[in-house]
Write a structure and sequence with these properties.
This protein is an alpha/beta fold and 309 residues long. Helices cover 47% and strands 11% of the residues. It is built from 11 helices and 8 strands. Helix 5 crosses helix 6 and helix 10 packs across helix 11.
Amino acid sequence: MTPAPLAGRLDGLLFFPVTAYGPDGTLDLDAFRAHVRAGVEAGAGAVFACCGTGEFHALTPEEYRVCVAAAVEETAGRVPVVAGAGYGTALAVRYARLAEEAGADGLLAMPPYLVVGDQGGLVRHYTTLAAATGLDVIVYQRDNAVLTPATAVALARADGIIGLKDGHGDLDLMQRIVSAVRAEELGLLYFNGLPTAELTGLAYRGIGVTLYSSAVFCFAPDIALAFHRALNGGDDETANRLIDGFYRPLAELRAKSRGYAVSLVKAAVRLGGLDVGEVRPPLSEPAPAHIEELAGIIERGRALLDGPR
């Protein structure tokens, strides 16, 4: 049976698993499989493997392929698997083909490495990537890959490009992109891809963007799912309670050091009882005091699930 197109399968909370390493720093596929399996069983709507939270930047092509294949095996078709692809165009194409060989359902296209291209160059980069495989592509807007509305329209016209994940955070720009694509009667899926995306969930919902990546789902799926239900059910009281008591303190802790958007998540997964190892350089582990603070934030977040405090 041919699976449904990726765009029709992306629903619910999007799970971005961390990549697990053993004490010697090599891949721990057993721990990674357990992490993916637990996320799917907890109710993830999709698995985005080897992306930002999964330290795509730190993986060799060989490691990348086995991780994507493991995620595909563990999901067993229950939810789609989307794999990261990045660097320059040639390497992005190589990773895309590895993901396709491993059985992935789609690609999250990271920004090109190092250089800042103009809008025409970005269109060429992403359309070349989309043409390289049969996988659908979601473009990740952030850093050196920020699109104009006209560029977003051009990408929406391209075969194989189905979505735009926004990690830039300019709501005015996103509204103009959504409007420009809609005015041309084209379709794109839009995702809030900011770190701790729940913090801006209400604002993005206001411009019609309800899909988002949840790092919190990696270590506290109960909190993440409660927020997701509140956001999509119009329960703004619960959403704001969780923002005030959990997500804002978590974001403020994340802001205390570069790289915490990944290393804090791995630390939180370890706090939950699954040893996924440390981050690879150039990222660093959180300070012990910050891990203690993290544990307290998670505890307070769970307490909020029972109602106001």
